[in-house]
Write a structure and sequence with these properties.
By secondary structure, the protein is α+β, with helices and mostly antiparallel strands. The chain has helices spanning 2-6, 26-35, 52-67, 85-100, 157-166, 180-190, 192-203, 216-220, 227-232, 253-259, 318-327, and strands at residues 19-22, 43-46, 72-75, 81-82, 104-109, 120-126, 146-152, 169-179, 206-208, 211-213, 238-243, 247-248, 268-270, 273-276, 282-285, 290-293, 298-302, 307-311, 338-341, 344-352, 355-362, 370-372, 376-384, 387-391, 394-398, 403-406, 412-415, 422-430, 439-442.
Length: 453
């Protein structure tokens, strides 16, 4: 997400971004923006997943509200890689010309192989850009644009080969540009039920810290559909701008291997990895040493939650693994060890029967809510920084290598009064250690009662 925002630097008339995400990702998103000093115009929280068409609709509605006019929207998924930034900027400027004329512009990636994992766009007649550049989509230059003749579902291999040989076909990137009014107008014509649900979700939204919480009941009524199906495949007002900028949607672990620099044996290693007689592998370690011996074309990913090993050509099957985890009610599918909060984050180091250990990081000046627990006690050990502790009627400071004990039922609060991050180890013990064993009496972040987790 940070790279997505950074690669826009240098574009003219660029407003602060609007981010749409699931409410479970809210603190992660806010922290990533803060880390690169990016001011935003709103982080819109989806209470339920409804695909890209409703997400873009609420963003368009919100953009019109905050800008007081009819802004151009550049729609960018957060998980793409684009290496040739000048060419990307040129495509954006060409898209701007057509979007300002009321067109719905999509960016079509110039295919480099007969890939069956992407949808395709067949370009029609040349759309111009204020000048006459040519008329054949198979013979374009950077900055060209064409009317969309057809959107094509993910093809079989033979069809993909034919598209590549014929020319004039582009991968559907999922990136768009249009006026807010252009998109909302087409949505009203093509799917009025969706537009009504999205407008109600924004009109009835509530604010919570940096976040705009879409109304759950209203947004839930929206049809679940992508922008491609809901609008782009049906509109007669679309234009495609070719993009040949070393693009990847990083849709799999093998895609990371594709775009990364490799060693002489074709391996890509991230973290603490060693190998012997290993070729064509992608290995990533976040927690411990990973060792590979005599293997080929594997993806090995080690995280604090789990380890995954797959053939590089089979990594798309990871979705089936996630479904298995969910069907078996495995916590790895829903709960992550590193959790972001408005005051910082915590990382669950270890847990067992009647105990849990966390590494807690508080940002400078941040404080947790005044709270107590019915079923657990806590020990806090300061690793670095200074902690201001409130425990019942006592308030005191703790510095590095000092600790304190919070008994069951004690009213307590933790604050970082310093200029650097506060890090501490929290050891919980008790009969129940769930995150819902918290009664909050005061919350400095103004979070509503139902969203104080």
């Amino acid at each position: 997400m940070q790279d997505t925002l950074k690669r826009l630097q240098g574009l003219k008339d660029l407003a602060a971004p609007i981010v749409v995400c699931n409410e479970d990702h809210r603190f992660t998103v806010a922290e990533q923006l803060r880390n690169i000093g990016t001011v935003h115009q709103g982080i819109l929280l989806e209470p339920v997943a409804r695909n890209t068409a409703p997400a873009i609709a609420v963003a368009a509605k919100h953009a019109r509200m905050v800008s007081k006019n009819d802004p151009l929207l550049l729609i960018l998924p957060a998980d793409h890689v684009i290496l040739n930034i000048p060419v990307f900027h040129l495509a954006i400027e060409q898209a701007r010309f057509h979007a300002e004329q009321g067109k719905l512009v999509t960016f079509g990636v110039v295919p480099t192989e007969p890939c069956t994992g992407y949808g395709y766009i067949r370009a029609g007649e040349h759309a111009g850009n204020g000048e006459s550049i040519g008329s054949d989509a198979s013979d374009y230059t950077d900055g060209d644009a064409f009317y969309v003749a057809e959107f094509i579902e993910k093809p079989d291999f033979n069809s993909a080969e034919r598209y590549l040989a014929t020319g004039g076909y582009f991968w559907n990137s999922g990136m768009f540009m249009f006026k807010a009014s252009s998109y909302l107008g087409e949505l009203e014509r093509l799917n009025p039920e969706m537009l009504a649900a999205c407008e109600n979700a924004i009109d009835q939204a509530s604010t919570d810290l940096d976040f705009v919480r879409l109304d759950h009941a209203a947004f839930e009524k929206s049809p679940n559909d992508s922008i491609d199906y809901a609008v782009m495949e049906k509109t007669e007002n679309s234009v495609v701008v070719p993009l040949d900028a070393s693009w990847s949607d990083v849709g799999s672990w093998s895609a990371l291997w594709d775009i990364a620099d490799k060693d002489e044996d074709g391996n890509v290693y991230v973290g603490d990895v060693i190998s012997v007689k290993t070729k064509g592998c992608y290995a990533r370690s976040e927690t411990r040493l990973v060792s590979l011996i005599g293997v080929r074309d594997l993806v090995v990913v080690d995280t604090p939650d789990a380890i995954m090993i797959a053939e590089r050509g089979q990594v798309q099957e990871v979705k089936k693994l996630v479904d298995m985890l969910k069907n078996n009610d495995r916590p790895e599918a829903l709960i992550h060890r590193e959790v972001f909060r408005p005051w910082g984050k915590y990382n669950s180091i270890d847990m067992g029967q009647r105990f849990q250990v966390k590494h807690i990081t508080l940002n400078p000046g941040a404080t947790i809510s005044l709270q107590k627990h019915h079923h657990r006690a806590e020990h806090w050990i300061v690793v670095s920084g200074t902690a201001e502790i409130t425990c019942d009627d006592k308030k005191f400071l703790l510095t590095e290598n000092h600790s304190t004990y919070i008994p069951i039922g004690s009213l307590h609060r933790l604050k970082n009064p310093g200029k650097i991050q506060l890090e501490l180890i929290e050891v919980q013990s008790g009969s129940y250690l769930g995150e819902d064993d918290i009664i909050r009496f005061d919350d400095v972040y103004g979070r509503s009662e139902e969203h104080k987790e």
